[in-house]
Design goal:
- By secondary structure, the chain is an alpha/beta fold.
- The chain folds into two domains: about 45 residues, no CATH class; about 325 residues, 3-Layer(aba) Sandwich (Rossmann fold), CATH 3.40.50.
- It is about 20% helix and about 20% strand.
- The chain is built from ten helices and 20 strands.
- The strands form five sheets. It has a seven-stranded mixed β-sheet, with helices on both faces.
- The longest helix is centred in the C-terminal third of the chain and has 20 residues.
- Its main location: membrane.
- InterPro entries: TBL, TBL_C, TBL_N.
- This is Protein trichome birefringence-like 14.
- It is a single-pass membrane protein.
């Protein structure tokens, strides 16, 4: 068991170290349950999987892999799945739209600090054997969930997969968005919660009632299932706008009553309050649940030019890397989420800066009346988010 002191260090101090063997090969060093982490330079007894040596002595190099720092590099290999993936909504499938340029598929993310492990579906499922992985958030969380299902299945239907959404309490957004792989007893779920708040009808007897959006309460799905989950990936960002809250017929509440505090009525401040509130709550749960890992995915960037989503903004670029191809900053571009998880057991899944370089990879206007510069083509950028998630697990 890792000591509480280590657990509460920033995430970049807690990622897997790299182990250098005498054969000059690098291999991820897995922490064994029940053992304290070793300081830089400590010797240890280990069995190397690749057969370089068995029970030999090696020196630990505590160099950390910061997956968010790196570059997009050309990759001629085909995507991990086809556009007709059974588990993906057609609107994400740019190859099934009027788009004719698919160069956005020809790049992979390469961290500068280490070699990112190749994603292998069978390996991921074996690691997640008898585990439940849940994505909770907005439509971009749903897209990440669909990307993961396509990556794990190659886009193909299989008798190994069963629909299990109705086995879980709390609201799962849509029939079929909860699947179990029978062979490994691995469950992948998605639950909609655009602002990670608990929602409650203000007047339960009125079908047209507004909903209380409790900033200080957690979504029902998380609250009711947290003790059964093994991996939780959550996000919130795009829906923190006064107009969207109003359109959703929601009213911000705190302490069981409408928000009165002038500072908290500011939507940006309300989002910061919510992000910190749920991180603190989950950190307390993690203290007593060693089988749970929680990731807060940072904001997915939008790329509206000459306007916004509701004022005629567009994203017409189809040429990769016009915004550059490298990210070398140590700090996350999502200051709110990064600050909230700092010093907690909640981990940062930092995808903001690397995704910001990919404005050509959005759904754009293909097959749509108005440009979608928020969501991404699949296969595409969200696959990289899942590769980084897999690497950090």
């Amino acid at each position: 068991m890792v000591s509480e002191q280590l657990e509460r260090k920033p995430l970049w101090l807690c990622l897997p170290a790299e182990m250098k063997t005498d054969g000059n090969k690098y291999q991820s060093l897995e922490k064994e349950e029940g053992k304290e982490p070793m300081e830089n330079g400590d010797d240890f007894e280990a069995e190397i999987i690749d057969g370089s040596f068995v029970n030999g002595t090696a020196t630990v190099d505590t160099k950390v892999c910061t997956y968010a720092r790196g570059r997009w590099v050309a990759d001629s290999r085909p995507p991990l799945y086809a556009a007709r993936c059974k588990y993906m909504e057609r609107k994400w499938a740019c190859r099934l739209s009027s788009r004719t340029d698919f160069s956005y598929e020809g790049y992979r993310w390469q961290p500068v600090d280490c070699q990112k492990p190749e994603f292998e579906a069978s390996h991921f499922l074996e690691r997640m054997k008898d585990k439940i992985v849940a994505f909770v958030g907005d439509s971009l969380s749903r897209e990440q969930f669909e990307s993961m299902m396509c990556m794990l299945t190659g886009g193909q239907e299989s008798s190994d997969i069963e629909d299990v959404q109705f086995q879980y309490t709390g609201k799962i957004h849509h029939p079929g968005w909860g699947y179990r792989f029978r062979s490994t007893n691995t469950t992948i779920l998605y639950s909609k919660s655009t602002r990670l708040c608990d929602l409650e009808p203000i007047n339960a007897t009125d079908p047209n009632t507004l909903n209380a959006m409790h900033l200080d309460r957690q979504p029902a799905f998380i609250r009711e299932n947290i003790d059964h989950l093994n991996v939780l990936v959550m996000n919130t960002a795009q829906h923190w706008r006064k107009t969207l809250i109003s359109w959703d017929n929601e009213v911000m509440y705190v302490n069981g009553a409408p928000v009165q505090d002038r500072n908290l009525k500011n939507i940006s401040n309300a989002m910061i309050f919510k992000v910190n509130n749920i991180v603190k709550w989950l950190d307390s749960k993690l203290a007593s649940n060693p089988n749970l890992q929680v990731f807060f995915r940072t904001k997915s960037p939008t790329h509206f030019f000459k306007g916004d989503w509701d004022t005629g903004g567009r994203c017409n670029n189809t040429i990769p890397m016009t915004r550059g191809s490298e990210v070398f900053e140590d700090e996350s571009s999502d200051k709110v989420v990064a600050a909230a998880v700092n010093g907690t057991r909640v981990k940062l899944l930092d995808i903001t800066a690397l995704s910001d370089l990919r404005d050509e990879a959005h759904n754009s206007y293909y097959g749509k009346r108005s440009p979608d510069c928020v969501h991404w083509c699949l296969p595409g950028v969200p696959d990289t988010w899942n590769e980084l998630l897999s690497a950090q697990l």
